[in-house]
Amino acid sequence: MLESLRFRLPALFLAGIALAGLVASLIALTLFQDYTRNESLVELRREARGLAALYAESALRASDEDKAAPAFAAEQLEAATGDRLFYVGAPLFPGQDAGLTRLTRDDVGIELSGSNVVTFEFEPPLEDRAFLAAAHPLRLGGDSGPIFGYLIVAKPKAELRETWVTLLSRLAIAFIVALVVVGGLVFYLSRRITGPVLGLSRAMDEVSKGRYDVPVPDVPGGGEIGHLAERFREMTARLAESEELERNFLMSVSHELRTPLTAIRGHVAALREGVVTDPEAAEESLGIVAAEAERLGRLVGDVLDLAKLDAHRFTVLTEEVDMGRLLERAYSTFTDEARRRGIEFTHDSAAAPVIVSDGDRVLQIISNLLANAFRWTPDGGRVDLALQSRNGAVTVDVADTGPGVGAEERERIFRPFWSKDNLGTGLGLPIARELAMALGGRIELESEVGRGSRFRLVLPG
Description:
Elements: H1 5-65, H2 74-81, E1 84-89, E2 101-102, H3 105-108, E3 118-122, E4 131-139, E5 147-156, H4 157-208, H5 223-272, H6 279-310, E6 319-322, H7 323-341, E7 344-348, E8 354-357, H8 359-376, E9 382-390, E10 393-400, H9 428-438, E11 442-447, E12 453-460
Parallel strand pairs: 1-2, 7-9
Antiparallel strand pairs: 1-5, 3-4, 4-5, 6-8, 9-10, 10-12, 11-12
Helix pairs in contact: 1-4, 4-5, 5-6, 6-9, 7-8, 8-9
């Protein structure tokens, strides 16, 4: 369960979201702490500046008129502002210091001097908590008068912590709600992702057992998983087709091997047992044995050639090839079959270029194309063989009046072991195309169903 993709994917998403949320919360809390501290110091400076002006004016009036402390009390100001007020300096007010809590410079913990507002942290006597404070100088006679003390406006740091805790609690609530919502979305999306993946996994298990007709789950919305499912569906279809082609090939090869072997065995037995005594008949039997043995050799050679081409272990010779003479040899090989079946067989080799290639393999390609043409051309039909040289390339056309090749079959006919009627070995055209590519050329096909086909071998000139 814990090792499954269905668990790991949501867990990974949620862990990432939780980590991102925690980092974001810490950053937000740090920024908020700095912000609230700075705002508190700005507020303390503003209050210290205003109250210092008020006390300085009252102190000057009291000194000139020999009056008591100002009528306003520190307690009322503290209640109005929510902050604590302290005083460091000379006892200017007769009888009392207007209710201000007196501190010494040692109590403050910093050096108070100059005319600027000073902000700091300290812990007043008889207090067990820290304060943020702003100290403003008190002057007699305005900004140019002497400094006789400092008014300190302080705010407990605990109040800032309360705002931080409030923010943290709200962030925690928002984080939990977001985690629940995102968790639901992640669970839904993971089901959408892992469902097809698990379906593909089950299908792969069936394919590994040799069952290629397994249904592949459809993936709504496409995407990478949909692309994977589509390619897997194509793969299973190819595997099923390959298995069928393999069976057809084995059946075809068995038939192709059995037929000449039966003929060879029969004639050899007749010769050994003395059934055939006439010299002409014996010579005829030997000719049949030789022909069938050659037929077997071609079949085995085709299989070996295909194996070498697939393994890229095919050796190409380099020699001068007279294409005119080579075309004559290919033409003469099929003239007897054309005459016997009443097929009009023509060839045009007016151009007779000499190219550098492997002559035996070029002849094998043309022979395979002609064999395919004669196989599908009905008796009384037509097969044309033509040689041309143009634009730095040599082309050999093999045209027939067979049934033609449909658009859906144009790629299949070049696959090994595939045969349209499941009777041949399906090796001729695949070997021809691979040989053409090995020689630096290609095979092109032009065909129309019901009107024949034209295979064109293109070789570099």
